[in-house]
Amino acid sequence: MEEQQENQHGSRPAEPVALTTDRLVLRAPREEDVDAILAACQDEEIQRWTVVPVPYGRQDAEYFVHDLAANGWRTGDNLIWCVFERESGALVGSQGLTACAGRPGAAEVGWWAAKEFRSRGYTAEAAAAVARYGLRELGLRRLEWLAYVGNEGSRAVAERVGFRFEGTLRSYSEQRGRFRDTWIASLLAEDLSG
C-alpha cells in the first residue's frame, strides 16, 4: 500500500476520491465537464454569492478544471468535486473542502448549485457526504462554513447538514475587491449523525 503524504488536512488521498450518495456521484472535475460548468456559472445567483469571475468565460471553467481542481487534489489542500445526478448524469453543482492555512485539522467547505437543480436537497446531500469524508476519512477536527450575510440558501444547507452557527464576522471575506460581512458555522465529528 502506498504511503499517504501529509498536508494541511492531515493524510490525503493519493488520487482524487469519488463519493456517492443515494442520488448523486461526486468526482473530480474533468475536461468533459467544462461546458456544463461554464453554463452553470452564468447564473446570477452563483455569481452573487461566490467568488467566481464575472463575467464567467470558458477560460474560467478550464482554469477551474485543469488548474484549481487538479492542483488542489495534487497538494490535498483544496479538494473539489463536481456533483452529478446519478440518474441523468447532469451536473448539479460543486463541492469543495479547502484546508485552513495555519490551522491544522481545520478545513472550509463551500458549494454552489446549478439553478435547475436547486430545492431538491441535492446540495445538502452532497455536503453531508463531503463532511463525513472530511471528518471521518481525513480525520479533520473541524469544518467551517462561511457565506456572505444574506445567502439564506447556503445557510439552510449548512443547517440541514448539522453545522452550528457561530456568528457574523464583519468585513471578513473578500469578493472581487470588496470585503463583506460573513456568517460562520462549524461542524465537528461528534455533530455528525448516522
Note down, in words, how this protein is organized.
The protein has helices at residues 34-40, 44-49, 58-75, 122-137, 152-161, and strands at residues 6-7, 10-11, 19-20, 24-27, 78-85, 91-99, 106-113, 142-148, 164-175, 178-187. By secondary structure, it is of the alpha+beta class. The longest helix is centred in the middle third of the chain and has 18 residues, at 58-75. The two termini are 29 Å apart. A hairpin with a 2-residue loop joins strand 1 (6-7) and strand 2 (10-11). Helix 1 packs across helix 3 (58-75) and helix 4 crosses helix 5. It has a single domain (6-191), classed as 3-Layer(aba) Sandwich (Aminopeptidase).
The CATH superfamily is known as Gcn5-related N-acetyltransferase (GNAT)
Strand order of the largest sheet: 3-4-5-6-7-8-10-9
Can you tell me the number of structural domains? 1
Strand content: 25-35%
Low-confidence stretches: 1-9
Shape: globular
Name the assembly state: single chain
The CATH class turns out to be Alpha Beta
What features would you highlight for this structure?
two-stranded antiparallel ribbon; alpha+beta; 10 strands; 5 helices; 8-stranded mixed beta sheet; 194 residues; Aminopeptidase
What's a concise summary of this model?
With 194 residues, this protein is α+β, with helices and mostly antiparallel strands. The chain is built from five helices and ten strands; from the N terminus they run E-E-E-E-H-H-H-E-E-E-H-E-H-E-E. The protein has one domain (6-191): Gcn5-related N-acetyltransferase (GNAT) (Aminopeptidase, 3-Layer(aba) Sandwich).
